[in-house]
Amino acid sequence: MTSKRVTIQNELGLHARPANVFVKEANRYRSRVRLIYQGREFNAKSIVSVLKACVKTGCEIEVQAEGEDEAAAVAGLTAAVAAGLGE
Predict the structure, then answer these.
(1) Does residue 15 have an active-site annotation?
(2) For the CA atoms of the chain, what is the radius of gyration?
(3) Predicted TM-score (pTM) of this structure
(4) What is the rounded distance in angstroms from the CA atom of residue 81 to the CA atom of residue 61?
């Protein structure tokens, strides 16, 4: 398993548009990908699950991946978050 922490920079947090970008990026990988926030696990490949996390701006999340391309998944997702998820 590979994981990395990253801070949400989007002004409105992880709302619908950036969450959609996050989920699309997660679905590019074969590994099981999870978003960890406030001790709870969310399926990073599900828009409903990611939105349920209710991540606010400035909050830190952990991206975890387990599988054949786990390192690439964590690197790709954390880079997308750091780049603002399309905003």
Answers:
(1) yes
(2) 11
(3) 0.92
(4) 10
In terms of Cα–Cα distance, which of 29, 25, 37 is closest to 66?
Answer: 29
Separation in Å, CA 6 to CA 23, 46, 61, 74: 16, 19, 6, 10
Please state the φ and ψ torsions of residue 82, each to the nearest 5 degrees. -60, -30
Q: Kindly state the tokens that stand for 85.
A: 């998820």
Q: Which amino acid is it at 31?
A: S
Compute the distance between CA of residue 6 and CA of residue 12 in angstroms, rounded to an integer: 16
Dump pLDDT digits (tens) for 49-68: 999 999 999 999 999 999 99
Q: Which of 2, 13, 15, 51 is catalytic?
A: 15
57: its two tokens: 């701006």
